[in-house]
Predict the structure.
Amino acid sequence: MAYQRSALMQERLAENRQRILASARQLVARGGFRAASINAVAEVSGLSTGAIYRYFPSKSALFIEVLSSAVRHECDILLAIVDGDGSAGERLRAAVESFARRALQGPHLAYAFIAEPADPEVEAARILCRREFSDVFKRVLRQGIASGEFPKQSVDVSAACVVGAFTEALVRPTEHSARRRQDKALVGAIVDFCERAVTGTA
Amino acid sequence: MAYQRSALMQERLAENRQRILASARQLVARGGFRAASINAVAEVSGLSTGAIYRYFPSKSALFIEVLSSAVRHECDILLAIVDGDGSAGERLRAAVESFARRALQGPHLAYAFIAEPADPEVEAARILCRREFSDVFKRVLRQGIASGEFPKQSVDVSAACVVGAFTEALVRPTEHSARRRQDKALVGAIVDFCERAVTGTA
Amino acid sequence: MAYQRSALMQERLAENRQRILASARQLVARGGFRAASINAVAEVSGLSTGAIYRYFPSKSALFIEVLSSAVRHECDILLAIVDGDGSAGERLRAAVESFARRALQGPHLAYAFIAEPADPEVEAARILCRREFSDVFKRVLRQGIASGEFPKQSVDVSAACVVGAFTEALVRPTEHSARRRQDKALVGAIVDFCERAVTGTA
Amino acid sequence: MAYQRSALMQERLAENRQRILASARQLVARGGFRAASINAVAEVSGLSTGAIYRYFPSKSALFIEVLSSAVRHECDILLAIVDGDGSAGERLRAAVESFARRALQGPHLAYAFIAEPADPEVEAARILCRREFSDVFKRVLRQGIASGEFPKQSVDVSAACVVGAFTEALVRPTEHSARRRQDKALVGAIVDFCERAVTGTA
DNA sequence: CATGAATGAGAATTCATTCAT
DNA sequence: TATGAATGAATTCTCATTCAT
């Protein structure tokens, strides 16, 4: 009986933890870090402020995890594409397109990835996250250069540039109007840009 | 006499205004938006907190102007390059290089340009600023496409991508070590990336 | 069987109660009242926070008992000395010396005895504890005065003064350096002081 | 005109600072450190919470000043007595009596002097304060020993003991009943105790 | 009975903005 | 007009106590 209770409890604990993370992510996505106070996170997640501190030792720690888990999830998807089939150019295009499509659905989270944070601790985490992102692109860049498909270039710089390019192009004033058409064209243009930048061919 | 005093006054008012803007810019560049409280701005500019509110109706308004005036200054420099002599590709390279060199000397201001602001009002301004930046690059892109030097592409998207690419590549953990050599290589790699991206040639 | 289980139960209950008291005492001795939160007590005693409230109705009640049991233990030792053999002066010296030696080994508990408590309830208990302490010394004072060994004096006041004198002299910034020598001299000086104070002879 | 305004302002600032200190002292005296929250200090002193932080950088800093200013004031009075006329014994008696009389009028402040503080910073200050107190008594002890009026003894220890003795004797459950008579007797007994302790004569 | 997750009031501290002088 | 002291709401974090399991 004690065991079962424990199992149920653990499930609920894990659920609460996820709910807190989801609430924090949601708040950041909607209103930026400013809108994501501990009180707001508590309210959205249906817990008390004190409960948040049972799951995370500080506000910084919570948002570091929000950031890094979002990035990890994104990176996993991109890695599967980048390590998949096709030429280096095809895989690069697919990865950029995949990222861009998702970013357009939750546009404000892209902000958070490049936002100046309130706290030096979060700042450090943010830089690591950006690096993780560009690491994914370094893989395909290296492969493309090795196979002669891409011209010689600084892998580090090009990877950062690629990340910066589509990030910037995706950041827009939050217009909640219908924009499917434009979105498709936007994604296409971004993908083209990145391919040209990396391959050096139109 | 009343007229002269008024003239002197106006001069001093304009001077104060500039001093406030410069102080705010300096504080943001050194410590980010967090370090730029109204009190800090007042202290650095040698005025009182109350005086700040004579010149700017709110903190948001002040930082909106800090942002836009910094961007305007940068844009003026870039415009001179972009509207100067040489092929479209040469001018694009020169503009990117010029921006990158300056950014590497005061690296933290680059953060501010892409920083998540405290206030929705500033947020809106920030997006306009980014647009102003990319407007400069749109000019040279249009010219290059018109002359057949660049392949057909979305001018809007490519301009944003170029801005994002070098911005991201320039943002690094503030390493205060000697890095002249690396800086030169970094700028070169960025410029190459952007040229390839836009011209489609290695 | 029900009886036996009950007996075993009662034993375990008593054991838990003692463990809680010991844990609380330990925490106060090491880090003061600040460090002695209910959660910390629960952790050290190997019980849950809720369990603490099975044995003590409130935090105040727990620490009141910590205080009074520590004092009772100390008083028992002192009483054995005070009611032992020798002249009143010898017994007073022995009691003071005994207390001082023990206090120097666990110096922080002396703080707790004179510490300002978090709670008026504990405050009241603390005063009673001090009174209990001085009651021990009143015994030997009365005896010494009756036998003519000590001059006439207010037994109440002198007892309190004696307690205060050695308490104060024993409270020092926690220097963890070797100090055996100094300790011996310190104890000697304290004992001398108290003897002079009570006997009126050098 | 600017000068006069400044003068008035400075006066008011100094007044506020004193009011804050007085409010904090009052709150500690009445209800201990626990009752002296920043909000309470603000309310009693008729200022806002934020205003407190214009005068003191932190709660700790405020209470360190409360403590040390109270001690300094007390020490000044005692020093005047100790460095005055009369034999060493007479001056010691006078100093103890003077302290005791005042302490009996604001009995809880004596607690604060020996209270375990919330903050390590305040703790450090408290220890220094106690030392300052006993330093005053060291003076008269040294003089008395040098002149042969007092027997040889550890000046450090005896001074601490004297402070501890009267401090302890003065600490009582806060009985707000009339007690003038008892007070007089109490002070007398304390003074006698200390004299005997130091002189070794009844 | 035991557990320990949850509560929520309360603490210290910050800072954009106002307004008496 | 300039000053800068004062405001007070908001923020992060703590911890004694409760209660569903």
Notes: DSSP finds nine helices and no strands in chain A. The first helix of chain A runs from residue 2 to 35. The mean pLDDT of chain A is 84.
